[in-house]
User: Fold this.
Amino acid sequence: MSTRRAYFTLALAGLLLLSPALMAADSPATVHRGAADLTFQAPAANDGGTLTVAGPDGFVDRQVFSPASSFRFEVSGEMPDGLYTFELVLTPKLDADTRRAMAQARKDGDDAVEYRLRAAGKLPAEALVTQGFFTLQGGTLVSEDLVEEEGAQQNPRGAEANAGTNLGVTAEGSNFSNISAADFVILDDLIVDGSACVGFDCVNGESFGFDTLRLKENNLRIKFQDTSSAGSFPSNDWQLTANDSANGGASKFSIDDIDGGRTPFTIEARAPSHSLYVDDGGRLGLGTSIPSVDAHVVSGNTPTLRLDQNGSSGFAPQIWDVAGNETSFFVRDVTNGSSLPFRIRPGASSQALVIDSDNDIGLGILSPSAALHLRRTDGNAGVLIEEASGTEAVRDMLRLVNNGRPRWRMEDTSPNGQILTVRLAEGDLDFSFSANTGDEVEMMDNGDMTIAGTLTENSDRDKKHNIVPVAQDEILAKVMQLPIATWERIVDEPDIQHMGPMAQDFFALFGLGDDNRHIATIDTSGVALAAIQALGQKLEAKQGELEALKAQNSDLLERLIALEAKIAP
Assistant:
């Protein structure tokens, strides 16, 4: 085995904590580590940020920071030992005009505004994102003092092993030469009939097993360095990287965009089998090797798709989850208390919710014939509007708004059923049945009501209580005191006269009804009947007196006749 590489100092370790792609020169924040915390220095102007830390056993911590030049994360006792990944996303500081332009773009559905604003220098050229790893051991961040060197190392077999030899092939007249004791240059194709090992830790007699090509040392990289320089030939350099070089870094495999200073693809060690799988039909499996649809996500507990607008483009951060389990399919508003504004329960019928091509919404029907069409076949069709607030208040529970006469219909589809139409016409509310030509009930905007039939008011004894007989004489006496007048209502057309008492006078004398501004017709009828009964009683009494006078007159007449007969000559 080769001698292990030397260790650099803490100052260099702080820079090598992140993978090369994450430590681009324009990284928006510098990371400083303590024994139990991370401090992020953010020199770029920002409007706050969001720090997410994820680690073993499903640990996820998300913190939102106010605008500042530094952000701090403290290790808690709830964090298990192991490797952690962090990501700090800064929200760029924007001027008022840019914010207005972005708000208007949202209203207009203009998703290209971000690219135009970046081109105009109103947004940062790239998202202000800083990412990296750290390791906890015994509740403390692993020291970054120990960093493996990226320097040359002596051949473990000794330089003398290669000195003065060309491996049995003479340099003269051949394409293979021993240029120096350490480097070989081959000026023709190289064919290895067997396996190859490259790296400082390869040994004589290496056991390859089925390996065709093996890289073996403590820092493993395969770099693709494109030397194109003419015209517009592509020349970007790429690198395959196995594991971080820093102590406490990540065990992972990455594809690095060297020229761009980015790492677009990473797989961490011990990721579950088939975390990412593309089958021969182009189907993508996440957690499965047998994807059955274009994108197939498999998990033992609530497979979830997260949509995370992280604030890096200036728009307000917002997170949505689309997920499903044995209880429901749902959309979760993670940013606002993880509420679930949308759910579908397993077993819901087909067409439970349909949005048609003309934007009609169907509930239980595939082709709705109205803007909102609810259809059921189980006898349970109905609409319930319920306000469950604990605060008592007057509320608009149903509104019909139309540029014209709003109308609603109630249709009885039984053999002898009719259609009742209720409509607002020229300020009047009209009720009409399909079997009749006119309006059966009209309610005018001045408060008048006209009905085509008979008005019948409830007066069922079984619907009443506190029944107390009245003294008809007293009622009659009060009626005699009740002023009766003719009058015109202020809201009526001129010269439309009515006759009757004033509600104030009626209430003061009889105390009937809810208040002193209204009179119920049943009360006026009751007062009139009581007064008529009193008059009838008085009439009966007078009739008795009259009969007595008639009898007395008859008796006097008979006596007069007898007297006259006696004195007649």
Summary: The longest strand covers residues 82-92.
